[in-house]
Fold this protein.
Amino acid sequence: MRWIIASWILLSPAVASAAPRVSLELATEKGFPITGSQQWSKLLTDLGISNFRIRSATGSDHPVIEQLGDDASPSYRVVGILTSGNVLVVPGGKFSTRDAGAIRNWLSNLADQGEAGVTERRGAFGLLRKQLAEVHDDLKQPIEFSTRDMPIAEALAKLEPQLKFPFVIDVVAKPELNDVKVEENLSGISAGTAIAAMLRPAGLVLSPERPPGGALQYRIAQPVTGREAWPIGWPPEKKPIEVLPDLYEFINVEIRETPVKEAVDAIAERLKVPFLYDRNAMALHEIDLEQVNATVPSKRSTYSLILQKVLLQAKMKPELRLDEADKPFYWITSVKPLGK
């Protein structure tokens, strides 16, 4: 297993891999202050940067980052422009002599993640577009085994060899992974959606991340305000009839005092899509689908309307969602939000 119990370890220079070399070439525009070169030299030296030079600009100079070497061991040559207003302009940034911390961060991000690290806007989870694509591709793999009644820890351990990136489990989260079992069979559902669904009853979430200088990983932890969590699927962009045409097939139906769970299971079998239940909401609002009976008068109707009417009698509702592989499933949750 590749599980890592989260802790912060400061590596010594002898252990840590060498950071890519960054050289700075600062070209001064016409009108650049006479004392500017001295100010910038002192600032860069104070930042511990020795590989730089300041020269007069030519007509062809413009801010640019040039990668030298291959992706495995790159180095970077940066041409920045020092303007007449004594501002340093580099790809993805503009700095004054008062911005020492911001300049340090810019250089650190460049050395860590290359040009994209300083020019590309961060997406969800603070990741770059390429990193998010890697995570999505990894998490769209389907679960290949039955998870029903399996402790979450066991399910994760069985799933992890399929994934490209490892789990990092916060210490406080580990007991819940052993104590809580997965109630649904998540076989066939994409890994991202399945993991998020199995963690929810344990009060835990999944968050892809990339520590500075490190590799992508999946953190399993308690939810924290301000920290994004991987969702249990996404609302489809297409109309429901395009996603799941069978929803709108008309059938003759009559349901008399039948447990809601039994009625929903019958519909799920007909639609042939997974149904996942919001166990947290059901526990909070004391909803037991085995104990609530549903009645639908004899009439001709669609599966979509029948499902809504059955669940509403238990104060639940169906939400059609897609997993990472764009496969549809139903998320069955309470009509009341968790906070009420």
About this structure: The chain has three domains: 22-120, 129-221, 240-334. Confidence is low (pLDDT under 50) at residues 1-16. Residues 190 and 322 are 9 Å apart (CA to CA). The longest strand covers residues 250-259.
